User: What shape does this take?
Amino acid sequence: MAKETSPAPAPRPAEKVRNVALVGHSGAGKTTLAEALLVATGALVRAGRVEDGTSCLDTEDVELRQRRSVSLGVATVEHAGHRITLLDTPGAPDFVGELRAGLRAADAALFVVSAVNGVDAATVQLWEECAAVGMPRAVVISQLDKPRADVADAVRACQTLLGDGVFPVHLPDRGPDGAVRGVVSLLDPTAAAGLDDAGEADQRRSELIEGIIGESEDEALMERYLAGDELVQADLIADLETAVARGHFHPVLLAAPLTGVGVPELLELVVAGFPSPLEHGCPPVTRPDGSSAPALSCDGDGPLVAEVVRRRPTPTSAGSRSCGSSPARCGPTSPSTSPGTAWPTGVTPTTTWTSGSAP
Assistant: This one.
């Protein structure tokens, strides 16, 4: 009997593409967060769990046995007219090659930090390496709903260890029982009214606004702020997103993936704040003889130039699910998919590649 098929996704213009690497220490919750993003965008009906061996991103036998990622996982979702490719990297130092491959294909890095365990030395080192090449970065404090989670301490650790430009944009909204039921935006001037510690919220809001103004190109914004005028929230958000895309400003968001708290806000940041392949640009290339080649351009209609950074067959293990796809590093199309191509249900291409247009 023939397998049920579904059409491959149509190409997207490069400005509508986001390639994001999820990085961080092993156990910080990267794969769980990726699963939550898949569910929030409708790519999955129900999130899998790493501890149950049902994650669509951890499909190799060794990953199912060890209950952790050992290879680069790739999944593509659609949100607000944009195609977002998530590159779920392993956090253990034994698999640093997979991490490097994910960063090679990404235009931005999302650092996932556990609210329980905080920031470790390997995360700090990776942050500094990304900073050295100007890669845009943001931080997500995950596992808010875990026992011993300390959001305030995790945020302080991020600001102390990761350096300048790191500012929280959310505070947790807790119910009467202390459980996290949502997040509150510090850009909302009325947000502090409903929190227990309104003083801390006001202080955090002032620090955030000053950080945004420091990166803004609108000199009148600083004048209005110093004069005590109320700033328009939309203006602050626009300046924040611009600063994030340039790699100068690093927002700290909050998320509890298992309950979906903070996931919609994270998706909005990825679409509005992270750069497209057009903004990040293509890597330098050389000819086979080692001589320099003309710079690549991000033209989806030009000849294909591809760099394969990860390739593996789709797993067929019983109970496994596939959600992989191919990120376009410098172009909106894929070498393994085209309009009208049909793939059997449950089978998707998992080649991670980069492309550009050769002059």
